[in-house]
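Why predict the complex rather than its parts? Because the way molecules touch one another can change local conformation, and only a joint prediction can capture that. The input here totals 281 residues.
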Amino acid sequence: MKTNPWTLSVLLLLAGPLGADPDWYEEYPDWADPDWHVEYPDSFCVVEGSTATIPCSFTHPAGRRVERVVWCTNDEFCQRLVFNVYDSSSVRADRRFQYLGDRVGNCTLKIIKMVKRDTAMYRFLFQANVDKYTGPKGVIVKVTDGEDVKVRSSVTDHVVKEGGQVTLTCTSACSFHQLDVHWYRNGHALSDTGPALHLSGLTNNNTGNYTCSLDSSGQKTSAPWSLLVLVDEGRFVWHLTVSVVLKVLWAVFLLLLAGLVFAKRSAPGPEHEIVYSEVVG
Ligand SMILES: *[C@@H]1O[C@H](CO)[C@@H](O)[C@H](O)[C@H]1NC(C)=O
Ligand SMILES: *[C@@H]1O[C@H](CO)[C@@H](O)[C@H](O)[C@H]1NC(C)=O
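Output of the joint prediction:
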């Protein structure tokens, strides 16, 4: 049968976007094939400005050599060269995306100082000889404002005894690595930095409302956590008792001493006694 060239081109056009190109599929092993695998977390979220590490590992049938590794976003097969965040065969690279993995089985990706627009579905692709593999699932990475920052405490009660200790931790529903954590008491910045604030040997000066912040501008700040340091009443009463007893003892001693001196001075001598007895007798 003789095919009209016009009909043929129409058929090809239809086959292009709608049908599957058999050659193209051959390059991608079946996702159900257990010899091919990419493993990473399903999803995670980080606070804007954080440095995130996506743990990743991959396996392929023995005897193959991995020639190319790619990380891409929002692309099921990592085909679009333009949007790849990392491609071992391309010199163009955003320095914020660092491939920490290798070509053997580790595909860990590090993303420095994440920004909101980094929110995406990330996928890893590796090419071993002619085959390319991405795996059926990617990892969803969400970059948040950090509006859920909270102060958590090592003690359940907000009232702590004098001399006691408490550790406050700055937390968020999303992870925040390599972010500066700032601490405040009643709105005044403390010199302490880091996700944990350890307060020991508590005195009344530690009483106040504590907040933590994930940036110096004061955004991403937690709600206040109030701490009340109680003066230890037991110890206070004991001190009071001891000092009162000592004072009483001292007063009694002084009185006795005074009494003794007075008695010595005013005590009648033996001659008087004799005189007195003579008068009486
Ligand atoms: C993969 O490489 C990263 C970065 O070097 C490392 O921290 C991680 O432990 C490695 N993972 C495995 C499973 O070896
Ligand atoms: C701490 O917060 C509480 C309630 O939020 C408030 O009543 C109190 O005055 C605050 N204390 C200081 C020292 O700001």
